[in-house]
Amino acid sequence: MSAVRALRAARDAGVRIGVDGDALTLEAEAAPPAAVLDLLTLHKPGVVALLRSGSDGWSGENWLALFDEHAAMAEFDDTLPITSAENRAFACCVAEWLNRNPAGSPPGRCLGCGGSEHAHDALLPFGTEQTGHAWLHSRCWPAWRANRKDAAVAALAVFEIHETRTSP
Q: Which residue, of 4, 59, 130, 139, is most buried by count of CB atoms within 10 Å of its CB?
């Protein structure tokens, strides 16, 4: 069992969990089952990491809640099969991670290859005014975008959020 599953088991048992330094704080209406306490003890470092906010301001718990919310909406509101619903939720999480972790570069340099702008090879802005632009040659964008998506997938995998593989 993982820290994610331990956290979910505690939540399912009605336990509210917080972090105080390196310690977990637990609140519940009734004493949690011993099995839940054992899981939290076994996976304490991972649970603490899930509850702490990252550089994007979100904790693992926030990412899991976003995934669960989007999966539930897709499954119940849009009547998608669970695999399709989870894949849609995963795509939403990837998009949110990319938005919360913008990549910017100074004007005049391609973030993909490091080259400068030329009359035949213009630099194009990707991103928003609010977070800044990543300047890229159009030929550099596909590889840069693939690398950014790979970074999002790796970051979300830490929280066991991933695309569901379907059988051929």
A: 4
